[in-house]
Amino acid sequence: ATSVRRLRLASIVGFGCVLLSVIPPCFSQDLPKGFVYLHQIDRTIVEDMRYATGNNFVGRPLKGYNAPSCVLVEEAATALASLQDEVRQSGLTIVVFDCYRPTSAVADIFAFVSEKDQPDLQFHPNLRASQLMSGGYIARRSGHSSGGTVDLTLARVNSQEFVLLDMGTGFDYFDPLSHSDSRAVSKTAQNNRRLLIKVLDRAGFSNYAKEWWHFRFRDEPFKGTAFDFPITGNR
After folding, report:
1. Parallel, antiparallel, or unpaired for β 46-47 and 92-98?
2. Are 43 and 6 in contact (CB under 8 A)?
3. 14: exposed, middle or buried (Cβ count in 10 Å: 0-12, 13-18, 19+)
């Protein structure tokens, strides 16, 4: 087990400011060979793990998310750390929303969207939950379960605050507005999306065209393999 002291997000609201708070030491579970906790590779990357909280389109923590920790294959985590070194020179930081996702969580999502048949004003106002699969936003199998896919954005660092770059929509806003090349968002958001995709591409990650925040590490070692170990430990 590893114990580290980190600065963590206290809250994120829309595109507003993000305050920092100090949390107790972290005690991490042993992971399968090839996987690491992102904080073990880079403690400066901000982790706002939405599926370990109620701040997501399901409205509660998903199965398997027993701690708000980003887990990735080591190669992807190392690539993000190198990218973090680059963007920090411009006063930016990476903010991750989701990393490795257990297959039990994928099944949890599928059960939720299969049972619910109403839009959600915050996450999918123009689609019923049951339409999220046909729309290409939810799948029975997720690349996240291989450990090389990550949902993220960039934020500007101002003193003791992080200000998320304007991407036109929030994370997990399932709508054509969130398509990476949407021209229906502001010019600022379009430029920020292009910046995000450009720097992630340089780091070896490919964007999913329907979700500006979704990136897959091209050289992931376990592509096509779905894992189901839980994310546990105190963060």
Report:
1. parallel
2. yes
3. exposed
pLDDT of residue 181: 97
Contact yes or no for 25/141 (Cβ under 8 A): no
How far is it, in rounded angstroms, from Cα 99 to Cα 9?
Answer: 16
Helices and strands: H and E segment counts in the chain: 4, 12
Given the structure tokens 């887990």, which residue do they identify?
A: 71
Count of CB atoms within 10 A of residue 156's CB?
14
- Token pair belonging to 235: 């963060």
CA–CA distances in Å: residue 88 to residues 54, 70, 91, 92, 217:
30, 20, 5, 5, 21
What local confidence, expressed as pLDDT, does residue 122 receive? 78
State both tokens at 127: 């689609």
The whole-number pLDDT of residue 163 equals 94
Of residues 74, 115, 211, 220, which has the active-site annotation? 211
Would residue 211 show up in a list of annotated catalytic residues for this protein?
yes
The secondary structure of residue 177, as a DSSP letter, is: G
The pair of structure tokens assigned to 213 is 């925040």
- pLDDT given for residue 233 in this prediction: 63
Show Cβ contacts of residue 80 under 8 Å, excluding neighbours closer than 6 positions. 38, 41, 42, 45, 72, 94, 96, 150, 203
Instruction: Compute the CA torsion angle 135, 139, 140, 143 (nearest 10 deg).
Output: 170
Counting as low any pLDDT under 70, the low residues of the chain are 1-29, 233-235
pLDDT given at position 29: 65
Looking at the DSSP bridge assignments, the partners of residue 215 are 150, 207
